[in-house]
């Protein structure tokens, strides 16, 4: 029984468990990188915290990888300590960590650093042990993940769940190192093939590996975006290339394999050198190079070989970037591209067992390919950066909060104050009230609110009741206290005393209730009508209160205009000015903002009232009339167009700018003629012609006036249609 069980353990169960462990590692590590890249997009990269975390993760993984790669066994004391640390991390992640990584990053960054260092070190230990059997199953796990991602790209898993699974796998790996493996069982970890033993094939592995590493770096540089096709093609080709190297019939065909390897390497070099068509060729390039690496991987590789691989990859990368950024003549660039050839062929040319003719032939072919087909990527594709500002103005000046002080910190708030693009860190919110919004990243904000509530930190959430841009209600708000104001709500935690109320400038007692009933759910247009009606038909205190409230609305929307103008969002600034002018006539500072915004905005009919306000201020009259004239002409409003032309003409004559006034007068006369307005056109043309009898322009206009008047007097009689008679 013992021998049968031992044989079953050594030949069946243990290798199957090792296969499952490596497969799971490949899948969940790929999933971790995929999900973490999405989570890290919400992290503030402007401070030093993220680079420190990335540096510790990289250093921990690299140290673990190198240590395990060149050591036979792990010391038992070190393994026991790592087991305890990984188990402690698992318990902390399960019981204490938030559902969102971003929240732990903000509030528990020190623990994240310690856990990341330990976890990356153990992951490096495991990666350093990936040889042959484990490597194949690990690569298959990556392949399965990439196939899965093609059909389900969303992957609705939390980072917390993935970390728990990975810590469990790391714990299993560490415990497995205590198991004694017999020599028979160890054979499952060593895949030895005739291809791998033959030194003649080692140059193909080295050249393909350096070329693939260089391309992967250049791919990240030139083509940012999803990398699923890249990962899939590499992992899939490496896996099946390694499997193919074990086929017995292929081992016997050494000459044919050597010839095919040379052809595949030259074709892969062609795909690499033709860089302007990487968008079309990169999957074929990755499959060819991955297949060569998997098929020709030597059974034993010396450490210095990987140093040469790193130097060759650096040569490919440096030369590619140099030729991409250096704007030189096409002929010189093609000659410099010849430097790629010795990097590729050097391992092949150094082989003593190969005759001279094949070496010369391969060198000449690759040189021709480099000279003829090299062309760097013409365009570096990248995702355009766009800053989406939240435009949801509310009359916040009706509140008793002085938000211009340093007692507040904002995150994507709907209030017109500088906001953080990332959730504020723990050190930033000390002794401050956090102002939040629910427009973006709601799941992260909910977790953030939960952590703030645990620490009894004050915060406010402003939610607009804008009918055109509603905020979706979430259940987390039901646990908070709510105050309802005019067109917006304020949520706050129960441990805060009443944090906000109506401003002391507003009416009290029954009068505030009177206005509250009419303005609670009113849009800006509805609020304007309500307040204008009260001012028109009421007297005494109600009329005075309505004027005060209108001023609060005006000041609120003016603040939005100033805020968006400072951000360079001219369209939003003008929209805010359009709201503010509904409640009061714009003051000089607001008109200046309108003037500066209109200079960089496309004219729209909605801006006509703002331009008319500008035309009443002497400083902006010329700009306003010059803008209004073509707008009215495009709308077919000829009366207003002529009116603004006359105003502009008088303005030029008053400023002694006679040439501009005369040009505008000609335009006005032309408009009169097109409208057949002889009453206005005739005296003006005749007067100017008498003043300038030698003027060709006024003579032509006079003749045109006579012709059009004569043609308008002619009577055209349409012949009556005769009745058709039925024959």
UniProtKB/TrEMBL annotation:
The chain crosses the membrane at residues 12-36, 48-67, 74-93, 105-126, 133-151, 157-179, 200-222, 228-244, 256-274, 280-299, 306-324, 330-348, 360-378. Keywords: Membrane, Transmembrane, Transmembrane helix. The keyword Lipid biosynthesis does not apply. It comes from the Bacteria. This is Tetratricopeptide repeat protein. It comes from Leptospira idonii.
């Amino acid at each position: 029984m013992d021998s049968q069980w031992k044989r079953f353990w050594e030949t069946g169960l243990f290798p199957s468990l090792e296969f499952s462990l490596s497969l799971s590692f490949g899948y969940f590590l790929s999933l971790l990188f995929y999900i973490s890249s999405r989570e890290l997009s919400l992290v503030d990269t402007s401070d030093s915290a993220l680079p420190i975390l990335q540096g510790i993760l990289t250093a921990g993984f690299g140290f673990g990888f190198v240590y395990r790669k060149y050591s036979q066994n792990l010391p038992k004391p070190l393994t026991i300590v790592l087991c305890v640390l990984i188990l402690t991390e698992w318990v902390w992640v399960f019981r204490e960590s938030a559902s969102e990584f971003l929240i732990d990053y903000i509030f528990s960054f020190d623990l994240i650093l310690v856990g990341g260092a330990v976890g990356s070190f153990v992951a490096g230990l495991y990666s350093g042990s990936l040889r042959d059997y484990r490597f194949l199953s690990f690569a298959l796990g990556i392949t399965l993940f990439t196939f899965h991602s093609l059909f389900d790209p969303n992957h609705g898993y939390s980072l917390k769940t993935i970390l728990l699974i990975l810590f469990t796998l790391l714990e299993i790996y560490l415990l497995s190192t205590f198991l004694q493996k017999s020599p028979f069982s160890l054979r499952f970890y060593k895949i030895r093939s005739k291809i791998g033993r033959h030194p003649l094939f080692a140059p193909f592995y080295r050249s393909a590996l350096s070329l693939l590493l260089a391309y992967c770096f250049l791919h990240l540089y030139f083509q940012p975006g999803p990398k699923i096709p890249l990962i899939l093609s590499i992992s899939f080709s490496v896996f099946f290339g390694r499997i193919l190297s074990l086929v017995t019939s292929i081992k016997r065909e050494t000459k044919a394999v050597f010839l095919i390897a040379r052809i595949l390497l030259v074709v892969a070099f062609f795909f690499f050198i033709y860089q302007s068509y990487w968008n079309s060729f990169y999957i074929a390039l990755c499959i060819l190079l991955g297949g060569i690496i998997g098929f020709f991987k030597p059974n034993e590789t010396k450490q210095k070989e990987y140093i040469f691989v790193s130097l060759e990859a650096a040569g490919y990368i440096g030369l590619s970037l140099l030729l991409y950024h250096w704007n030189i003549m096409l002929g010189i660039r093609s000659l410099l591209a010849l430097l790629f050839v010795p990097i590729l062929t050097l391992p092949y040319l150094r082989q003593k067992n190969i005759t001279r003719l094949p070496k010369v032939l391969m060198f000449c072919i690759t040189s021709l390919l480099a000279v003829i087909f090299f062309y760097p990527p013409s365009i570096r594709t990248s995702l355009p950066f766009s800053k989406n500002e939240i435009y949801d103005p509310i009359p916040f000046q009706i509140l008793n909060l002085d938000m211009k002080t340093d007692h507040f910190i904002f995150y994507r708030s709907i209030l017109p104050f500088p906001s953080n693009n990332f959730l504020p860190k723990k050190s930033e919110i000390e002794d401050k009230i956090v102002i939040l919004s629910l427009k973006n990243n709601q799941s992260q904000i909910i977790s953030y609110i939960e952590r703030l509530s645990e620490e009894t930190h004050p915060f406010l959430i402003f939610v607009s009741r804008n009918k055109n841009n509603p905020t979706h209600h979430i259940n987390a708000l039901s646990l908070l206290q709510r105050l309802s104001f005019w067109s917006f709500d304020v949520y706050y935690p129960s441990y805060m005393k009443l944090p906000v109320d109506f401003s002391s400038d507003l009416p009290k007692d029954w009068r505030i209730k009177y206005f509250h009933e009419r303005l609670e759910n009113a849009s800006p247009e509805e609020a304007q009508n309500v307040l204008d009606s009260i001012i028109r038909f009421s007297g005494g205190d109600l009329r005075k209160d309505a004027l005060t409230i209108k001023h609060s609305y005006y000041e609120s929307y003016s603040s939005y205009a100033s805020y968006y103008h400072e951000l360079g969002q001219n369209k939003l600034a003008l929209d805010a000015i359009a709201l503010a002018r509904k409640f009061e006539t714009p003051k000089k500072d607001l008109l200046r903002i309108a003037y500066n915004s209109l200079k960089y905005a496309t004219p729209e009919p909605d801006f006509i009232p703002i331009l008319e306000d500008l035309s009443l201020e002497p400083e902006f009259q010329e700009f306003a009339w010059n803008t209004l004239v073509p707008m009215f002409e495009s709308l077919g409003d000829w009366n207003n167009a002529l009116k603004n032309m006359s105003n502009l003409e008088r303005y030029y004559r008053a400023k002694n700018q006679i040439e501009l006034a005369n040009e505008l007068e000609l335009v006005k006369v032309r408009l009169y003629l097109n409208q057949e307005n002889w009453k206005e056109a005739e005296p003006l043309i005749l007067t100017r012609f008498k003043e300038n009898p030698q003027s060709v322009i006024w003579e032509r206009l006079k003749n045109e006036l006579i012709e059009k008047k004569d043609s308008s007097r002619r009577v055209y009689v349409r012949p009556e249609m005769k009745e058709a008679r039925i024959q």
